[in-house]
């Protein structure tokens, strides 16, 4: 009788551990809105070059990719929103703290093509704050 209970207990522990490991292996950080660090306009003012900071691992590998980059244009303003996605697999938190460069940032330049030239329109970030544009 005792061996039957031990076998059942071991099977339950193994199943719980397998489920936990599978959940951790599949987990991804949610997408997030990037903060605009710098904004430059191309010489013809039809492309905005947006610099944001992404996360990098200790090995220098970039761990963020662009999920979306858009510019909502109106006659007097442009609202720019860059969304980043974490592309490095996430494992257990204690492992991540040793192998990921939390807080290590790497600049990423993202091009956003406008429907019409920038002209004298003002540019705003996703939070509605005006962003200074370096015109080329």
Automatic annotation (TrEMBL):
Domain of life from the UniProt record: Bacteria
Record key words, sorted = Signal
Which residues are the signal sequence here?
A: 1-25
Protein name from the UniProt record = Lipoprotein
Lineage per the UniProt record: Bacteria, Bacillati, Actinomycetota, Actinomycetes, Streptosporangiales
């Amino acid at each position: 009788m005792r061996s039957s209970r031990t076998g059942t207990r071991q099977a339950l522990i193994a199943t719980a551990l397998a489920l936990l490991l599978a959940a951790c292996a599949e987990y991804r950080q949610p997408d997030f809105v990037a903060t605009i660090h710098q904004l430059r306009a191309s010489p013809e003012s039809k492309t905005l070059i947006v610099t944001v900071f992404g996360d990098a691992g200790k090995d220098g590998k970039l761990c963020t990719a662009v999920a979306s980059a858009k510019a909502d244009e109106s006659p007097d303003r442009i609202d720019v929103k860059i969304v980043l996605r974490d592309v490095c697999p996430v494992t257990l938190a204690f492992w991540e703290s040793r192998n990921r460069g939390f807080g290590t940032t790497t600049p990423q330049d993202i091009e956003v093509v406008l429907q019409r030239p920038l002209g004298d329109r003002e540019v705003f970030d996703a939070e509605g704050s005006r962003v200074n544009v370096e015109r080329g």
